[in-house]
Design brief:
about 300 residues; rod-shaped
């Protein structure tokens, strides 16, 4: 009578690990590839666990230190530790619920200690704290936490509207400051330009008057030398008559609708010349009288 044996063959996929039991108790881990089991000896494949990275999204609603309710969306990436696959298989019935519960606990313990602004600034620190706590706890159950990402932080809608209004007001205030500085610079530059223009205008008027004086003196001297017997007074009267007619011509060519009534005729021109000369003579006489009175 020969010996009889019964052997079953099982194939474990890559990135997986099998749980082999013998008479209901864990015996060993079955590695990827072809595996043999002896049912007559009580061996059988109790289950297969994937060692690929799995992802779990957790939504947590909590409150910050400044009493703002926020919803935090985090993504937890975890995997079964191959060497501790038996712990992962036997210890936890639903690892996803367990991970979610620990994330809730850690986040709700950390976030109320900081303000909303600090939460946005320190979200990586919060994720790191959750990662360290989960690694310590879930490592005992055969799971490794690879990464924790704070995907989004969503404040209450009313808080978001208020934050947007504050941001808009700050930007408008900053824009007003910049606009005021720009207006100030424009006014300063305008004042400087006006001052420079007035200065240059004064210089131009002074040069114009100097040129007129020099021209009159040169004309009088030239006329006196070329016309014998002509006195300076006669030459001055002739120049005044010429200036008088030039003024009449300029008034006539002016485009402005302005009416000017002035006496016209040779006699009136002579009267104007006499008045100017008398004024000059009275001015000189007044200066002389003042000097004599001062000397007395």
């Amino acid at each position: 009578m020969g010996n009889a044996s019964c052997i079953f063959v099982g194939c474990i996929d890559q990135a997986s690990v099998g749980i082999v039991e013998k008479w209901g108790r864990f015996e060993k881990l079955a590695q990827p590839g072809l595996n043999f089991f002896n049912p007559c000896a009580g061996q059988y494949l109790a289950g297969v666990l994937s060692t690929r990275i799995d992802s779990l999204e957790v939504k947590i609603e909590t409150k910050t230190k400044d009493n703002v309710f926020v919803q935090i969306i985090s993504s937890i990436q975890y995997r079964v530790i191959k060497q501790s696959a038996d712990d992962a298989f036997y210890e936890l019935q639903n690892p996803r619920e367990q991970i979610q519960a620990y994330v809730f606990d850690v986040v709700r313990a950390q976030v109320p200690r900081i303000t909303l602004d600090q939460l946005f600034e320190q979200k990586d620190e919060v994720a790191k704290t959750v990662l360290l706590e989960l690694e310590k706890v879930m490592g005992e159950y055969g799971y490794n936490i690879e990464h924790i990402l704070m995907v989004d932080i969503i404040p209450d809608p009313s808080v978001r509207r208020a934050m947007n209004e504050i941001n808009a007001a700050q930007r408008l205030q900053l824009a007003s400051v910049y606009k005021g500085e720009a207006d100030k610079i424009l006014q300063v530059k305008k004042a400087e330009a006006e001052a420079e223009a007035k200065y240059l205008g004064g210089v131009g008027v002074a040069r114009q008057r100097q040129a007129i004086t020099d021209g009159l003196r040169e004309n009088i001297l030239n006329f006196s030398h070329k016309v014998e017997g002509a006195s300076a007074k006669e030459v001055m009267d002739l120049i005044m008559i010429t200036q008088y007619f030039d003024t009449i011509k300029d008034l006539g060519n002016s485009s402005k609708n302005t009416t000017v009534f002035i006496p016209h005729g040779p006699g009136h021109v002579r009267d104007i010349g006499d008045q100017i000369r008398n004024g000059l003579m009275e001015g000189k006489a007044g200066i002389g009288t003042s000097s004599n009175a001062h000397s007395d």
